[in-house]
Amino acid sequence: MFYLYENGRVEHTTNLNLELNVYQNDVFQFAERMRNHLNFENSNDIRHVVQQLGGNLEIGNLHLDNQDGSILVNGEGHFTIYLPEHTGDLRDNFTIAHELGHYILHTNYGAKVTSLKKEFQDLQAVGFYRHESNRLEWEANWFGSSFLMPESDFKNLVSQGLDNYTISAIFNVSVNAVIVRKKVLGI
Fold first, then answer.
1. Which residues are CB-neighbours of 184 under 8 A, at least 6 positions away?
2. DSSP-based three-state secondary structure for 115
3. Nearest 5°: phi and psi at 133?
4. What is the pLDDT of residues 27-66, one digit of tens each?
5. Is residue 64 domain-resident?
6. What is the enclosing helix (H) or strand (E) of 144?
7. Is the distance from CB of 55 to CB of 81 less than 8 angstroms?
8. Three-state DSSP class for 128?
9. How many domains is the chain built from?
10. Does residue 175 belong to any structural domain of this protein?
């Protein structure tokens, strides 16, 4: 996580305590409720959810030695998700869902950033990127996987004997995301 100031200075921090520190299953359930609230279906393009919430997508990174996705949150309804240049649509779908997890869970739709900007006059934005494995990243992963692959639907497809490639195609995620979801759900 980092602060971006108006003068372009970047300050890496872990001081914000934005982690929810709730149970994994609570994040799963919340993500599925958000999926329903936003009327997201497997056949939908998750990029529309970004637009629906007031965000933008860009290809490239924030030049912070990060080759994965990242998000820069400027305030309520104002954020940009950065996607890597070297990944495909299925991987990008999970990256977008993961970054939406940061936006929704860790900034309360940008409201926490708006509040911080009042406290730190020259603060422009707060950003998240996969720099290390920590609670913030776990929670964003839990959100992303459950938003894209709801547990009951996922388990139903697995119980039908569908292979990982077919399940990947149904949920529009990578085969690796399917494998990880199986492992997390104990399947």
1. 24, 142, 145
2. helix
3. -90, 115
4. 999 999 999 999 999 888 999 999 999 999 999 866 555 5
5. yes
6. helix 135-148
7. yes
8. strand
9. 1
10. no
